[in-house]
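Supplementary notes for students who missed Thursday's class. We covered one full example, reproduced here. Read the sequence, then the structure, then the short commentary at the end.
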Amino acid sequence: MQKILLSLIVAVFISSTTFGQGKEPDYGDAYNVINQWLEAQVAYQHLPGVSAAVVKDQEVIWSKAFGMSNIDQKVKTQTSTVYSICSISKLFTSVAIMQLYDQGKLRLDDPVESVLPNFNIKQQFEGSGPITVRSLLTHSSGLPRESDFPYWTGPDFPFPTQQQLDKRLGEQETLYPASTYFQYSNLGMSLLGEIVEKISGKAYNLYVEENILKPLKLANTHPYLPKDQWGSKMAVGYGAIKRDATRDKVNLFDARGITAAAGYSSNVEDLAQFASWQFRLLEKGGTELLKSSTLKEMHRVQWVDPDWKIHWGLGFVVSQSEGTTYVSHGGSCPGYRTTLQLDPKNKMAYTVMINAGGESPERLAREIRQILAKATKESADKKSDVNLNDYSGHYSSQPWGSEVLIMPWYGKLVEIGLPSEDPSDGMTMLQHVSGDTFKRIRDDKTLGEEIRFERDKSGKVIRAWQHSNYSTKIN
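Structure (token representation):
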């Protein structure tokens, strides 16, 4: 009998343990905070529009759009809104190169001139090693950042054709000996696009459409900016903010010979699928567009700069934050800023797109993931004996600050000053005490000062009192 009872106890323990390990965090309150914070960022930074998404393995677990994709026509931004993704284009070019590598059609340590006979840049360092395909992928080739044309200069952004780029190449010279320093190079990645053409025998655009975009069903991702969708399905780009808090509309551009480095368009929904493909391939192994082992190599550090601050994979930035390794890439083009960040170990990805210059999508993505990280430490079972939504809203903190956001947070209230560069660090937790009275939860989990909410005659919360002073609810 004792053995039977012991077996039952062990079985129940194993069952409950397995269930606990597989239980997904409840992100509901975190999503609400993220929505309110991003809405405030758009308003206070005078951003035209933002689209963002969070991926967990094969599922988009949160996505949201804010603001306008076209201010003049009052077109609202959607998660399906298309943006220029600029340098995220490099990831698709890198995948194309690695497909050819998988097929045995090139080696990463092949000298570029052995593949491209027209590669005639002047090597000004006699002792330099060869400029290889690998060094182009890791931005360690010593090539200059750009082809010798003023294509980042408005208002018309005169990008060269591939023929013009090749012709001017012989008039340029290397900045450093190969494999010496990191030097980000749109020129180098554009040459990788030419290598794709040379080896595959197909035009670059046709190759990536047939071999990457269509197989992954990325219907809104293209190696060009869709001119016919600009202002409707594709967001209009705007410049960096000016002193009068306005932003100029930016002309649409065509990257032409720089397409492989900076010419793609996409939306957060497609980049979410692109991330899910990588998680799927890494978990299942085998081959899907690439060999799983090849994608692992792309994510692995292949170059470390002498100062140990810059780490690069094959096409991907590789970085660490709080012990987690991220592979990522950002994009910055006239009128657009974008980012895609993957956490392969936990199969999480974050993508943010902005149709304006100046703001950092990397910062927005970082704060999204840090707010979610805080939520994973909370219990979804935590309840409050009062309706926390009664207190939820924006409170004026004038003239000392702009406003304060108060919202439910897993059985407590959270207080965040807006606008905020780092809301995850600025979260103050409030514990219900009695009636409409709460107390601040200190870092050591003890209770601090009192915050009392005031209601009007109808029972609606209208003020928050603290230290004998009050702030008024403004919505």
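Commentary. The first helix runs from residue 2 to 22. The domain at 46-358 is CATH 3.40.710.10 (Beta-lactamase). If anything here is unclear, bring it to office hours.
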